[in-house]
Amino acid sequence: MGLYSNKQRWKIILFIGALILFVISLYVSNLLVSDISIRERQRAKEWAEAIKKKLELIKLTNNTFTKLRDREKQEVNTWVDATKSLFLSPFDGDASIQLAYSIINQNKDIPVIVLDDKNNVSNWKNTPIDTSDINKLHSSKSVAEKSKILEDTLRKIALQWKEQGRFFTAEIFEGFTMTCTYYDSKELIKLEYERDSIIQSFNKELIENQDQIPVLVLDSKSGKVIGDNLKLSKMDKKLRDKFIAEFKLKNAPINIDFKDGSKNVIYFDESAELKKIQWYPYIQLFIIGIFVFTSYIVFSTFRKAEQNQVWAGMAKETAHQLGTPLSSLMAWVQYLEAQNIDAMVTNEMQKDIDRLETITDRFSKIGSGAKMEKKDLVVTIGNILDYLRSRISDKVRIEYKILNEEPIYLNHNTSLIEWVIENICKNSVDAMEGKGQLQVRVERIQKWIYIDIKDSGKGMPKNQFNKIFKPGFSTKTRGWGLGLTLAQRIVKNYHQGKIIVLHSELGKGTTFRISLPSI
């Protein structure tokens, strides 16, 4: 039992060692992940501050853009009023007419086209196309034709501006109105381009942030998405709303306060690299487990092969060593018979010699392979039980039962099956301490033959049910722990069967079951 206990102890030590290594690896990995997570959050805050400044710049640009647009709109309105005053003032030398001309001439940036109530072009200034452009494009046409082309072109542009809502209508006098259409000045268009560039840069910064941290920027009041790098545009509304709700729970958000009543909230998640690192210890454990399992299978196969060679070598050597004294004993028996010694003495000696021959035969068959013969299993078991009855305590009662049918023919090796039965029965007799009842029952159920050996001994705990078949395990003080191991090898390797502890209860006894395939 000491050999087996040491083996089990080493297994437990190795398992605990592997568990400690895994725990250390998991702790170090989690420490690393936590450190990276803190750094990522710090970078996210720094990135959020940079985004905040860009958003502030965008807001400032938008405010400036709105003010300039309003100013230009006011200038156009003033320009319309000046144009209107030209129609209303009766004298060219009137001061109001001079002021009107001054206001009109001061407009050097804002494109303006004035239409009368019949949509005829009555005036224009700073337009995208003028007389010089028409002259270049249509040099071969007459002046009247060029004027007509210019007016049609300006009317088309004016109507487009009108559709965009860029116009004023002024009633010059009753029954006569003028429509002044206008567009943004070159400076305003340039500013608008700069603003769009900043917005595109902001969106690019969101999509291609330096750490590829998943980011979502929302307006705190409306909940409107300001920007993201999550490809939300490719999701339908229901899925997008669900995704955003789950994304908000990932980490504590970062608030951006613009000090003007408007706020944005930045939500973020761990980067893909950080998530991969979190799985590292488990992947490491899986790889180590696969390696250990494969190594165990390989070494176990080699170990079993070596054990088989040791068993075979030991069995052959035992059979060989027994052969020499057996031959000598047989000669001595013949000599004693020739000396007219009491026949009872020589007969008993011959029985022991026959027994030794049987044992030698068993070892030789384990070492060189066992020949299977179709014989009656009931007879095989009955013979060994008859042999045991005369050699065990009279206080042990052996009961032999065959259920369902008799005989039971099976391909088996008589000597080896007898050895198995003998080993189990002797263990049972030892467990009963030479006093009790031993029951052997044989039954065929479908494709299996079951041999149950039940004793009334001291029994065993459940944690020993499998251990007793291990080499070196024994409940006896001087036991080698090989009897049941040999029995299991004979049943499993030579007869493709199984041997188990079917039932055991402390103080009441144990039942062994041998299962042999009947086909």
Walk me through the structure:
By secondary structure, the chain is α+β, with helices and mostly antiparallel strands. Among the domains are: 68 residues; 148 residues, Histidine kinase-like ATPase, C-terminal domain (Heat Shock Protein 90, 2-Layer Sandwich), CATH 3.30.565. The protein is built from twelve helices and 15 strands. The strands form four sheets. The chain has a five-stranded mixed beta sheet with strand order 10-12-13-15-14. Strands 2-1-4-3 form a four-stranded antiparallel beta sheet, with helices on both faces. Strands 6-5-8-7 form a four-stranded antiparallel beta sheet. Helix 1 packs antiparallel against helix 5 and helix 8 packs antiparallel against helix 9. The protein is rod-shaped. The two termini are 37 Å apart. About 2% of the residues have low confidence.
Which features does this protein show?
single chain; 519 residues; alpha+beta; Heat Shock Protein 90; five-stranded mixed beta sheet; four-stranded antiparallel beta sheet; 15 strands; 57% helix; 18% strand
- The average pLDDT score comes to 76
Helix content: 55-70%
Quickly give the structural class. alpha+beta
Main pleated sheet? 5 strands, mixed
CATH architectural grouping of the domain at 370-517: 2-Layer Sandwich
Task: Describe the global form.
Answer: rod-shaped
At a glance:
This protein has 519 residues and is α+β, with helices and mostly antiparallel strands. The chain has twelve helices and 15 strands. Among the domains are: 279-346; 370-517, Histidine kinase-like ATPase, C-terminal domain (Heat Shock Protein 90).
